[in-house]
Structures are given as C-alpha cells and as structure tokens.
TrEMBL record:
InterPro entries: Amidase, Amidase_dom, AS_sf, GatA. Keywords: ATP-binding, Ligase, Nucleotide-binding, Protein biosynthesis, Transferase. PANTHER family: GLUTAMYL-TRNA(GLN) AMIDOTRANSFERASE SUBUNIT A, TRANSAMIDASE. This is Glutamyl-tRNA(Gln) amidotransferase subunit A.
C-alpha cells in the first residue's frame, strides 16, 4: 500500500473491506512521519496516543458491523493555527509556545463528529504571515519534492505533509493564497472556499475579513469530501452562511463550459515555462469543447498593494491580544528604582512582543499600526477598501459571461531557502495571482498542472461567490484532462 498516493475514498474502501484496520493505517502514517519528518519538519507536534485511540474506536465499530462515515478513521493533519482542544496550538510563534487550546475549532468539531483521526499539527509561517514557511518560530519546513526549496506558505507544513505521504489530507488557512500557493509548490490540491462558507471560529485570526479555512488534498474529489464535512452556518461565526450547496457528483458537460482567461495574469513577471504549461492546458480544454474567453480584471494591478494595506491593518488589531498578560509567553520586566505602575506594565507589553514575535510579524504589526494611525487612515486604509470594492466588481462583471476563471497559481516554481528572505517585497510578489481572490471573497482552487524543471506547477481556477460546488466539479474535469495530457 502506497501511503503517498492514498486518497480518502481508497482508504475508506480498504477499511470497509477489512483489508487493513484503522489502527494499522494510523500506525503506518505515524511510522512514516517518525522516519522521514526529521528531514522535512512538516509537523510541530504529534497526537500519537489520541490518534491511535480514535482509530481503535472506529475499528471497534466496524467489528460490530456498524456503518461508518467516509471520513471515519482517516488520518489527517491540521495547521497549527486551528484549535484542537487539549493540545498545543502555537501558530508557529514563541509567544504561544505553550498555549493549550481550551476548545475545538468548529471545523475540528465537525470532523470529530465524522470520526476523523488527527495525527498532528503542522508547521506554518508565524501567525500565517509568509509565503515560504521560513518565518516559523520553530524552524522552516522543506519541500518534499526538493529539500533545498521552500514548500510555500503559510500552510507549508500541511502541503508538505500531504505530498510526503504523512497523512491522507490536511487542513490549512488561506488569507492571501496560503493554501493555494503551497499546494502549487508541492504539487497537491489546495482549495480556498468562498469567504463565509466555512466557519472561522477557532482559527487564530490573522486578517479577519480575508481568512478562510480549507483542505489540502491529493485530488479534487477529496477536497470536495472535506468541504462537504466542514462547510455551513455556525452561530459562533457571524460571517458564516447557510446555503443549498448542490451535488458535487452531478456530471458536468465540458462543451457547455465557458472559461475566462484574464490577460492581466499573462504579462511580465510570469515564468515563461509556467506560462507555456498553463497555455497548453487551455489549448487541451479548448480541444475538448470548452469555450475559452479572454477577459479583463482591470484592477488586478492594484490587488497586491491593496492586500498589503488591508491585511497588516487587520493584523495590528488582531494581535493586540498577545500582550504577555493572558496568552502564552510573558517577559516580565523588573526595573530598578521608582517607576510609575503604568510604565512597568508597558515594559511587560513591549518586552513580551519584542521577544515573542518574529521579525515578519513585527513588521506587519508596525505597518498596520501606521496605516490605521491618525492622519493616514483615509490616505491608506480607506482608499484600499475602495479599491477592494472595485476588485470585487471586476469578478462580478466577469462572471456574468463565464463559469470559471483560469490562471497560474504562482509566477514561479518553488524557490530556494534564503532566496527571498532578505527582500520582503519579492516574497510578497509570490502571492500576486492569489490575493485578489481573498479581497473579493470568491472561491479558488489550485491543481497540479505538471512540472517545470522537475518542480510542480499549479493551475488556479476561480469561481463565483458561493458557487463552490460548481468550481469543484469544473476542477475535477480539468484535473482529469491534465492527467490525460501528462500521460500522452
């Protein structure tokens, strides 16, 4: 049995036929992690005892002849900014190094009801701020495809765990591309649902109007299975919604499909070999009967600048709670001499945040505080929100005539460690094709589209608001065509 290739449905069928037990499956993944993760560092912590106990419970149900759900007993990994009660949740930050989650995130609660087995928490850029997982307070994760290269970020640990065969699927979070970009770099599937489709309750907030939890999987079908389990209205998240989502298994006629290709995504900055790869898929889709339509998303050029104003502004607000008083790490200063009480408390705040937060987190807090400060709010934040509205209108207008938008996921393949760390702007440019999706709140998915120079290439499909199921149906069709193309 090849753990690397095992999908949810395949694992479920093996277990139902009793060709393997849930306990054996979980032990197999844990053994693989212990052998190989010292080189990759996908995990920050393992839940070995809890995972084996959960697996055994499902085995006992099977032995009694009971019916089990599709996700029952399936080993999964979880990004370490999503709370699992009783376990550490660090957000890869020293400031939360010993924080124990007091409750389950809503997505975890839902997956526990499905009897999912959680084998561990995965590494990420600190507080999900980064595009390479080099910003983790506990050391970087390496790309299983090439250990000299980054896995992408911020959900780099989750993408690496799936690619390395350490779990069947993983959960990540996506604020500006943090599921799709690492999925592209590692050669797996990464799905960001519509904002509000999945509850954010229990996700450590980075930028609340942009964050969304989603799955990283081996196939589109697996992404659809996870989405079905975690989506829906949650009373604990006022931004979540109830919808009639539709049926993923319903067949799709490719000849009725209209695919928009934005001219702004195929200009300067895109690796020519990636462009060639994506355009070959477009040609294949056209040959199969899909109608290809050139479209314009005219405000795309301002998306990155808009994102890097709105996101740090929300970061500075969300991270004020980490002050050394209630959560995690605290560097209590003990100044000598007589000082006003207020000054002593300020010393605690300043030292805790200086030593507990990494450089990138401090950079974004300072940027956000400046953006929101008196005299600059209107010039930056308010103006960025106006541009955000225009970006959303671009998508709304485009979807009046098409079913889906097709773009590259990233402008390059996975880069080497240290290649962009000295220049934050070049690192931010790694998100150039993904941030507009979060600003507009629409769903998007990254699929493996082949390789360039032995490294994975990702193709991004963007859907209409709350048309997640149709996007997944289209993605499955495109996935099949890509596999056929790569095997000919």
């Amino acid at each position: 049995m090849n753990l690397k290739e095992l999908t949810i449905k395949q694992a479920h069928e093996l277990l139902e036929k009793r060709e393997i037990t849930f306990l054996e499956l979980t032990q197999g993944f844990l053994s693989e992690i212990k052998k190989k993760d010292k080189d990759i560092h996908a995990f920050l912590s393992l839940s070995e005892d809890e995972a084996l106990e959960a697996a055994k419970k499902v085995d006992d149900r099977i032995a009694k002849g009971e019916q089990i759900e599709m996700l029952a007993g399936i080993p999964a990994a979880v990004k370490d900014n999503i709370l699992i009660r009783g376990g550490k949740t660090t957000a890869a930050s020293k400031i939360l190094e010993n924080y124990i989650a007091p409750y389950d995130a809503t997505v975890i609660k839902k997956l526990k009801e499905e009897e999912t087995v959680f084998i561990g928490k995965t590494n990420l850029d600190e507080f999900a701020m980064g595009s390479s997982t080099e910003n983790s307070g506990f050391g970087p994760t390496k790309n299983p495809v090439d250990l000299e290269r980054v896995p992408g970020g911020s959900s780099g640990g989750s993408a690496a765990a799936v690619k390395a065969g350490f779990c069947v699927y993983a959960l990540g979070s996506d604020t500006g591309g943090s599921i799709r970009q690492p999925a592209s770099f590692c050669g797996v599937v990464g799905f960001k649902p519509t904002y509000g489709a999945v509850s954010r309750h229990g996700l450590i907030a980075m930028a609340s109007s942009l964050d969304q939890i989603g799955p990283i999987t081996k196939t589109v079908e697996d992404a659809a299975i996870i989405f079905e389990a975690i989506r829906g209205k949650d009373e604990l998240d006022s931004t979540s919604v109830h919808r009639d989502w539709g049926d993923f298994t319903k067949p799709l006629d490719i000849e009725e499909l209209k695919i928009g290709v934005p001219r702004e995504y195929f200009t300067h900055g895109l690796d020519p070999e990636i462009e060639k790869n994506i355009k070959s898929v477009i040609s294949k889709l056209e040959k199969e009967g899909a109608k290809i339509v050139e479209i314009s998303l005219p405000h795309s050029d301002w998306a990155l600048a808009t994102y890097y104003i709105i996101m740090p502004a929300e970061v500075s607000a969300n991270l004020t709670r980490f002050d050394g008083i209630k959560y995690g790490y605290s560097e209590i200063s003990r100044p000598t001499g007589d000082h006003p009480k207020g000054e002593k408390l300020l010393d605690i705040y300043l030292k805790t945040r200086q030593e507990g937060f990494g450089a990138e987190v401090r950079r974004r807090i300072m940027l956000g505080t400046y953006i929101l400060s008196a005299g600059y709010y209107d010039a930056y934040y308010k103006r960025a929100q106006k541009v955000r509205r225009l970006i959303k209108k671009d998508f709304d207008f485009a979807f009046e005539n098409i079913d889906v938008i097709l773009t590259p996921t990233t402008p390059s393949t996975a880069f080497k460690f240290g290649e962009k760390t000295s220049d934050p702007l070049s690192m931010y440019l790694a998100d150039i094709y993904t941030v507009s999706v979060n600003l507009a709140g629409v769903p998007a998915i990254s699929l493996p589209s082949g390789e360039v120079g032995g490294l994975p290439v990702g193709l991004q499909l963007i859907g209409k608001n709350f048309d997640d199921i149709k996007l997944l149906q289209i993605a499955k069709t495109v996935e099949t065509i890509i596999k056929e193309k790569n095997h000919t």
